[in-house]
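Encode chain A's predicted structure.
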Amino acid sequence: MSAQTTGSLHPGSPDKEDYALKPMLKPIHLWAIGVGMVISGDHFGWNFGLAQAGPLGFFLAVGLMTILYITFIFSYTELTTAIPNSGGPYAYARRALGPTGGFVAGFCTLVEFVFAPPAIALAVGAYLNFIAAKVFGITLPGLLGLAPPVWIALLAIVGFIALNLRGLKEAVAFELGVTILAIIELLLFCAICLPKFQFSNLVTTPALPGGFQGVFAALPFAMWFYLAIEGMAMSAEETANPKRDIPLGYISALATLIILATLISVISVGVMPWQELAKVTMPLPVVAEAVLPAGHFMIGTIAVLSIFGLVASLNGIIIGYSRQTFALARARYLPHALAKLNANKVPQNALIIPGLFSLVACFTGYTDQIITIAGMGAIGLYIVSMISLFVLRRREP
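Encoded structure for chain A:
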């Protein structure tokens, strides 16, 4: 598939200065965006899948998702390097399947990327509420009738929208820093818990408590280990050398995520009864509590450092949804005002308007249901993207 300019993909004079993004990203930035968008999935959400499938069934679900993402990302990289467009999936589907295909892909992407931030932000709220109580002995109050996790989630989304309005350089520098800190925290968690690992915790009778139906029911939660890595494609227009840098960014990010998913899921289940682990919103601090003496300072340390992983994903996905909205508006699938850039070359309306939908979703407080909605959007996106790849391979080899 030959690389093409992006001009034919967005009608409405997209090459005007007002609608051109600034290329500045290097492989290390793409790695940080790819890992950062996803790394919150190591901190929450995945463990709900244990209730559906039990340990072995959940590990099967994780294995299936890992295979899916390996094959998907290698195919997706081919699309991204051939069509380096901030619209990502929308651009590929439009080229392959026409305007309707582009709209379907863009809609699925927005469902995924607009519903993922509230799930992550609610986890930020839950973690901060936990830290306040366990580390500082403070009971956070409700605010305007909202529970602490909810009002913290609202403030988190507003805060990261404000950060992104300052410019991509600032947002990506922040993303790189918090992603590195989050990885350090996850490795520290593994080092603390590994000595308490018991293989017997991985074994159940029957081996698949939920049967194969449970394995499939666990897939949306297993997907949380990788969900949103495809958002790196939406930074393609802002990449200095897309043909070289995007494959490097994707492969290094995926390898990092596979290692982390394996370590976190196996070690966590190996040190704590899976039935209990399946019920908690904050698995890492709870697992740390199970292996450390009561009141040990490392419990609070793990909880505090976990915030870095959560905000890395929140910030990265906000970058992603703003670029997708920008591209859809530039192509006039959405109101063209959403494609307007501010003085910092940031699509400000594309940051703010979808963010309002994320804020509304926070009011539900249902993290597991929001995760499922985001996962359904992702599945639709993956299906349309793969159809687009096969069509373009045949039409434009």
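DSSP finds twelve helices and no strands in the chain.
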